[in-house]
Amino acid sequence: MRRLQTITVLTFALGLLLGAAAGSAEAQFRAEEFEYGDRFALPEGQEPEIWNPAMRKLLDGGPMIGGTIRATDPRTYCAMAAAGYDFMWVEMQHEATSWEQVARLWRTCPGPAAPGTRIAYADEREIQHATDMGAAVIVVPTVDSVAEAQAAVDWTYFPPMGRRSSGGGQGPGEIWNNVPGGYRQTWNDNVVLILMIETLEGVEAAREIAKIPGVDGLFAASGDLGNFSGFGEGDAEYEALITEVATAAKEAGIHACAPLRWADRPDFTCFQAGTEAANIRRGAQAEIQQAEARFNNTGGGGASSNAAALLANLTAECGSITYEADCYAAVESAAAAAGSLSDADRGLIVGRLGEIVAANPNQAARIREIAAGGGIEVQ
């Protein structure tokens, strides 16, 4: 009986203590009431300097152009980074490249084009790897909802705007360690965050996504919007999706992004350019055609300079098809221009199209159809 009484008294006393402790703990701190400090604030009156060339281009109204890199060879990367692009779009969504390989590329050539990447998805690990390794442009694919978009913002930006952890890495420690004003102090003003709208759900949420603070641009994903909608460029249904994405960006006062071949479409100010493979093919073909043109001037034969650029572009975009839409655009340009060429140059265009059709049976019917629209019959 005494033991039972003792246990009862102890239980009652313990309950009082725990209740008091719980009440005390609840009253001690509330995160939402905390006022963020000024440790990372710039001196009063000092504006953050824009050291990211990609952000500078956006602030100037564009065009901001990123070169696409899928290779892991630093020499190839360095050639692209020095070619005149504003940033490098390192492909991490559709390649098996490791972050260690990407870190080596950026460490070898941190400029003049800003390091950037399309990550695989919007989570802390992916974005933290990219930013800590030096990325100053983050492209996030297949954003379907406001929640996904907010997650991308959270992991891209430092507090109080986001939730990025301050963990070091070669980005803040080596590549950007001497930027004006300090990396941590000016990061939120310099990083570029682009969200790709690629699905029907993403288009539906695009206007709300575009309003989220920290989103700099919406990318109208030409390939996957066709993949997810079942329509292609030129179809009314497809074009309505593209218009909705561009309108969402414009109304929110941010940038509409797209493939570089859309540089002539209204409202688009930032672009993804071709891959290093396409550039190598394009450059080689241009060099070869120029040599052939010079040879022709001495009586040897070859394509004129008017046809040379068309042939080079066909080879670059269709010689090894990475993006079907880019190949089809090259075919359309060549077919449209062929009518004003000499018979000899027109024959070269037709011949090149025939080679492309033979090498790409899955796209052959569409290539023939586009060529026929320009008056060219391809066997």
Could you walk me through the main structural features you see in this protein, from its secondary elements to its overall organization?
With 379 residues, the chain is an alpha/beta fold. The chain has two domains: 53-266, Phosphoenolpyruvate-binding domains (TIM Barrel), CATH 3.20.20.60; 277-373, no CATH class. It is built from 16 helices and eight strands. The chain has an eight-stranded parallel barrel with strand order 1-2-3-4-5-6-7-8, surrounded by seven helices. Strand 5, helix 9 (200-210) and strand 6 (217-220) form a beta-alpha-beta unit. Helix 5 (124-133) packs parallel to helix 6. It starts with a helix and ends in a 6-residue tail after the last helix.
Question: Cα-atom Rg, whole angstroms?
Answer: 27 Å
CATH architecture of the largest domain: Alpha-Beta Barrel
The proportion of residues forming helix, as a percent range, comes to 40-55%
Helix/strand order, N-terminal first: HHEHEHEHEHHHEHEHHEEHHHHH
Secondary structure: number of strands: 8
User: Which percent range describes the beta-strand content?
Assistant: 5-15%
Within the CATH hierarchy, at the fold level, what is the topology of the largest domain? TIM Barrel
Structural class, by secondary structure, is alpha/beta
What's the helix and strand layout?
Blueprint: H1 2-28, H2 53-59, E1 64-69, H3 74-81, E2 87-91, H4 99-108, E3 114-118, H5 124-133, E4 137-140, H6 146-156, H7 170-175, H8 183-190, E5 192-197, H9 200-210, E6 217-220, H10 222-229, H11 236-252, E7 255-259, E8 268-275, H12 276-297, H13 305-318, H14 324-338, H15 343-359, H16 364-373
Parallel strand pairs: 1-2, 1-8, 2-3, 3-4, 4-5, 5-6, 6-7, 7-8
